[in-house]
Write a structure and sequence with these properties.
globular, alpha/beta, Rossmann fold, single chain
């Protein structure tokens, strides 16, 4: 079982979108029993809050439900619990080491590194939830192909 944790600032927009997009892709590939997926926040600002309504609406436009998902913060003991930490941007990269320590550096990857590079811009600020969705889906597709080739 490969355990993947998607990370963003508050766990109310990008990382839950990635969690539910990836769960669908993994399910469609018949790999539910080989890949475990979750998402977490770097900050504690949104803990316990549901997925941000515009992000939830964007997921719903694509036939995905995130009902029951609430923001959860990344904790130091997650370093041993997950095989891969998939972050959305450079800011997440700067913060994750402070929470998990340096020992996870080989486990941390930017999502869009699996799809040509770059950051997934935070739609909380840009208000472009459709663009974030498309970037996240593209990254998740690339991640799944990587997993199929390299790890499974």
């Amino acid at each position: 079982m490969i355990k993947i944790c998607f990370i963003c600032h508050g766990n109310i927009c990008r990382s839950p979108m990635a969690e539910f997009i990836m769960k669908r892709l993994v399910g469609d590939a018949g790999l539910d029993d080989r890949i475990e997926i979750c998402s977490r926040a770097i900050s504690n600002e949104e803990l316990g809050n549901p997925v941000y309504p515009p992000a939830k609406e964007e997921l719903a436009r694509h036939g995905l439900s995130c009902n029951g998902k609430y923001a959860v913060q990344l904790k130091p003991d997650d370093a041993d619990r997950y095989d891969m930490f998939i972050i959305m941007d450079e800011w997440n990269e700067m913060r994750i080491g402070g929470i998990l320590g340096r020992s996870v550096s080989g486990k941390v990857h930017k999502l869009l590194d699996f799809a040509g590079g770059g950051d997934v811009e935070d739609p909380w600020y840009t208000r472009k939830f459709d663009i974030a969705y498309n970037d996240i889906e593209r990254g998740c597709r690339g991640l799944l192909e990587y997993l199929k080739k390299e790890l499974l």
